[in-house]
Amino acid sequence: MKVAVAGCCHGALDKMYETLELLQRRHNVRPDLLLCCGDFQAVRNEADLRCMAVPAKYRHMQTFYRYYSGEKKAPVLTVFIGGNHEASNHLQELPYGGWVAPNIYYLGYAGVVRFRGVRIGGISGIFKSHDYRKGHFECPPYNQQTIRSAYHVRNIEVFKLKQLKRPIDIFMSHDWPRSIYHYGNKKQLLKMKSFFRQEVESNTLGSPAASELLQHLKPTYWFSAHLHVKFAAFMQHETNSKEELPKATKFLALDKCLPHRDFLQIIDVEHDPNAGDSLEYDAEWIAILKATNSLVNVTQNSWNMPENNGLHAKWDYSVTEEAIKEVLEELNHDLKIPCNFTLTAACYDPSKPQKNMEPVHTINPQTTEFCAQFGLTDINDRIQQAKEESSGRGECEEEEEEEMDSTGSAEEPSEYNTDNSGLSSFNPDEIMLDEEGGDEDLSTCSVDPSPDHPPEFSTSFSDIRVMPDSMAVSSDDATDSNNEELEKSGGSRQGEERSPTERSLKRIGADENGNSGVKKIKRRNQAIYAAEDEDKTD
């Protein structure tokens, strides 16, 4: 079957689906499935905009709300993971995954599903070591810290995924697995993105948690986004025994969803011709969720996952064939995911803007049904209970927030002693936020919905690529050879990436003597959301 893979969508669903329709008209190619690698931005209304960690001037409504309201329907089944620029309050309603709109499915904090026999997994968010060992404690209304920590990867999700034994066909992460750049055309990557050099040479670019999963899961394909550049790599995995067959992963990072950008890829994936066309639960994954349910944590206290170090009575939570069989029997061998999407918030109305709409903590009926069916903890219900218990003890919520503000950014001991996934270098494709969230006030910030009628779709979308038979780049020529795919997509982008707007941006950091002339900036990989901003420079 044909699978389309997209990079950072940034809410531009109309553009993404129109590109697929253009592909069908021009090349008679119709994908059976669309995968999106984060920064999807499922924004339903003005309150959702307040829950995105971006400056107010970049909060645009875009077009997802049309699919949420039912005005439009996704023309192809779409499965996505979360990134670091999302309506976190909306995605938080579905920690185990669920439908955000008809035909558009979110994988949750971490998840595995099946489509036509193809096993698809993913993990949402980006890695930050100071939040990695905490529980999912955040809920709206967010403060300056929780609006960001809400999308940080947690160790419990990585732990669950590491319990998988059966092969994974496709895996998605938003940020790149650390070290993956050593298995592709590193020379061409640094030619296009020279500001990555320091992190590449020090091997601190990307997520160490994702790298750990890559080495454990060894999927056939791994797709990422986040860094707004197309990059292909081929990783041959080491075998653990002579009996184990060699495995390799084809890695591909996609660009962001804008005209003239290489944001979409089509690949052919082997599938089960006898399987149905419905999205299905994965029985092993459901069994793992049941087995690890006792590990759910909704506090901001840091803790380690069980391991074989003499401190834990149990550390192996992988599941037996018997446990998987029990899940199948519970479902009567019908793994089809129910189409039970329901509206849980008011939809944006261009004729009646509500700029002062406040986000609320919502328990989604899909999650309630899923947890009841499989005997799982509803994380949002547990958070609500914890808040009520806290109020009952007379604890002041403001004091708790102040305490969190003073300690939330403190580095906690972790198995990962670096925190460079956000990168310290300056990326012209990104908007920078200071460490405290800039000058925006989450309680009063304005929203700036994009016009109800976006710019007319242009046939200048020349960013459709069909995956070659092999994406392999040998390690011997990774730094010297010219990857044909990257040359074709990157060569024409060189001038574009040095647009007047980008040239006017100043690098912020220390001078030659190491003295910083401005407040230290932590780059948050903020994308340029409004397509018109970049179109002006094309």
Characterise the protein shown here.
It is built from 18 helices and 16 strands. Mean pLDDT is 80; it is low at 396-415, 417-426, 430-441 and 443-538. α10 packs across α11. Helix content is 26%, strand content 14%. The longest helix is centred in the first third of the chain and has 15 residues, at 13-27. It has helices at 13-27, 46-50, 64-69, 88-92, 146-149, 155-161, 186-192, 197-201, 208-217, 283-291, 321-330, 365-374, 379-392, 397-407, 484-491, 494-497, 500-503, 531-535, and strands at residues 2-6, 33-36, 78-80, 98-101, 104-106, 110-115, 118-123, 170-173, 221-224, 231-236, 248-253, 264-268, 279-281, 430-434, 464-466, 521-527. The strands form 3 sheets. A 7-stranded mixed β-sheet has the order 4-5-3-2-1-12-15. A 7-stranded mixed β-sheet has the order 10-11-9-8-7-6-13. The chain has a two-stranded antiparallel sheet with strand order 14-16. The chain has one domain (2-390). By secondary structure, the chain is an alpha/beta fold.
